[in-house]
Amino acid sequence: MSRLGIIDTHAHLDDNRFDSDRADVMARLANDMEAVITQGTTYESSVASVKTAEQYDFVYAAVGWHPEDLAGIKDESYIAGLEQLAREHAKVVAIGEIGLDYYWKENEPKEVQLLRLKQQCDLAYQLDLPVVIHNREAHGDCLNFFQNEVPKELKVVFHCYSGSLEMAKELWKRGYYLGFGGTSTYKNNKKVREVLAACPEELFVLETDCPYLAPEPFRGRRNDPSLTEYVGKNAALVRGTSFEHIAEQTTKNARTLFNKMFRA
């Protein structure tokens, strides 16, 4: 058992903010964490995530194209590249980070984002892998898509959940998971904590989204997976339970959702 006994289900360990001390960070995390899933955002970062997962026993990888990076897709062969990574590397446990982002106006048009999301979800279903969903300022389209455009059997986690409680209830009906990270610790984010408090205990996981979105009391600093501890302690406070229970339950949930972990 690691020091914390928890899993960070969403990290970006290939980010250049770790370049100066990555080896030291990883050595510490090997003692702290039960597991970390590092996410791809392009083909190149997906390759980097796979390499990191193969270098460290406790790290697993997700591969995918983030909605902010879709302009980098030059033709339809991109999906074959992701499929090859997922099929050839046992430590790929999800397709992600994928989704919709309507916040940045320079992103690809909505119809392109929806097409790429559909293609990557179809790949995940074909490979029996879960999808890790980014949803920013696209709540209506995201909910409609997952209610109508994917098989009910597809396993889904909405990372860094930012939608309403009403939307969350619709997602829970389909057995979808929600990921909670640093934003759930921010004092002005009552909506997220409301959802966290109401979430069925079998349908949420912990994450950091590091190096972004460090939790309180580290807001504004570089985030890393060890700070999942503070996310978990906040979840315990919000839900009126112990950190030990949160750690045990969310680890069980992560193993269920990302069921290739520890079998790779």
From TrEMBL:
This is TatD DNase family protein. The lineage of its organism: Bacteria, Bacillati, Bacillota, Negativicutes, Acidaminococcales. A divalent metal cation 2 binds at residues 134, 159. Pfam families: TatD_DNase. Keywords: Hydrolase, Metal-binding. GO terms for molecular function: DNA nuclease activity; hydrolase activity, acting on ester bonds; metal ion binding. A divalent metal cation 1 binds at residues 10, 12, 97, 209. GO terms for cellular component: cytosol. The keyword Ribosomal protein does not apply.
